[in-house]
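Data availability (excerpt). The following record was deposited with the supplementary files.
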Amino acid sequence: QVQLVESGGGLVQAGGSLSLSCAASGLTFSSYAMGWFRTAPGKEREFVAVISWNGGHTDYADAVKGRSSISRDNEKSMVYLQMNNLDPEDTAVYYCAAGDWVVLTSGLADALERHAYWGQGTQVTVSL
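Predicted structure:
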């Protein structure tokens, strides 16, 4: 079955950096766009970043644009999220997802649940 396993979360001070990784298995990785999403305490899940199947296209939420970078390695079936200049507002559980580009960028919760694969998440906590 499809498995997405995130790693790299932890506690970091504001202004610091973090690199998240997601290892995928059980799917033809290079056929899927990959995305990162996050759920902050008391908030709904929100889009963070997405990368196309071949890495040729990326998109970012305004909240992280300019200080984050998504990348992938199709040979290793891995997707990464580098986040810099972290702020306490970035505190959340971060999830990686595999799916179609349109689905991952749709913002539609139902479509995301039905038509994407999800990892279990990794906690990122940013302290002052």
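Summary of structural features: Residues 109-115 form the longest helix (7 residues).
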